[in-house]
TrEMBL record:
GO biological process: one example: Mo-molybdopterin cofactor biosynthetic process
The protein's annotated pathway: Cofactor biosynthesis; molybdopterin biosynthesis
GO molecular function: metal ion binding; molybdopterin molybdotransferase activity
Keyword vocabulary terms for this entry: Magnesium, Metal-binding, Molybdenum, Molybdenum cofactor biosynthesis, Transferase
Enzymatic reactions: adenylyl-molybdopterin + molybdate = Mo-molybdopterin + AMP + H(+)
UniProt similarity note: Belongs to the MoeA family.
A Pfam family this chain is assigned to: MoeA_N
Protein name per Swiss-Prot or TrEMBL: Molybdopterin molybdenumtransferase
Organism this protein belongs to: Parasutterella muris
Segments forming domain MoaB/Mog: 178-315
Purpose: Catalyzes the insertion of molybdate into adenylated molybdopterin with the concomitant release of AMP.
A GO cellular-component term linked to this record: cytosol
Amino acid sequence: MNVKSYEDTLAFLSSYVRPAAETEIRKLSDALGFVLAENLISNLDLPRFNNSAMDGWAFGSENIQPESFTLTCVGSAFAGHPYEGKLRPGECIRIMTGAEVPEGADTVVKQEIVTSEGSLVTFPAGVRKNENVRFCGEEVQQGSVCLKAGIKLRSAHMNFLAAVGVKEVVVYRKLKVGFFSTGDELIGVEETISEGKIYDSNRYCIKAMIEEAGFEPVDFGRFPDNEQKIKDGVLQAAVLCDAIITSGGVSVGEADFTRDVVLSNGELVDWKCLIKPGKPLAIGKVRNAYFFGLPGNPTAAQVTFHAIVSLALRRLSGEINPTLKMSLAYAGADNLKKKPGYTEFQRGVLEVRNGRICVIPAGSQKTGAMRSMVDANCFIFLPEQQGAVHEGDLLRVVSFYGLYS
């Protein structure tokens, strides 16, 4: 079994995993969470016309004086109800936020700093040309690329694309990710526990992680330690799904049949990835479906999915160069233990102390500790060469609320 660093593992996946080729056309309202399969061209300028950024008074910049100056109000403009006509020197209009700035005007002064008496409006010194005007096409120009292929659509994209008149988009279809468990010792949570049995917790977690990542989970159930039944399940999953995930069952143990099934019906690249918790990792293909074998330990399985497999699935779904979203936080304690040689994803809790974002360990960092994963709200990313951590050190963290953004 090969030994590879975390960075080497990600580099391998970037060349090994290729995006699923199938695309579909979806209405914009039904495209949230899908990945764009082609560049989007804007149908119009954004903004569509020069408009006011606030309530105030609009006029031409030729009227601006070093000191205060007075203009004559000749009308008004509201959103959807523009001023009809062209402003001449010495004139201004009352204008509301979003209203079209009329011909002859290029500057808006907010209402709070002007004084008016009848039709005469006095402006203070210091007015600047073009202020408080959103100019036509300053964000996007008609015919230009407004979003590039490979972007996963979020709510902000819905707003943006609707604003430029996009009705439908070409996207990669949502991945189907099959998963199953193997082992005579496993039972479902609906069953009564008995001697020598354990609950099949990983299968419930894997399903949830697949859904959280934005993919469609397909549950193939639980297989006993029987090579023919595992083979039947793997081959069925390979036909119906884009990827297959299992946990445990891919080591060189006597009853680890999943490994032999994958090798006999596809290809398997397995190694020890130098991450904690984690390490055992199997990557391969069965027919056209990618295969990912996670460690059997529940916490290690979660870390390996989030740190490695989720990125591979995002690449498979069509995302361009997916990465974990990291931010910075100060170590809030001296009890983060780390030795060089492994990349660690410690479970942490982000909190604010004296105006600074700090992170502390979320309880036990033992591989088998499950409670700390529940109490954590982030991973503390400690690179391979990182040694001991001291309070006040600046660390990278991966918020659980930003894993897939």
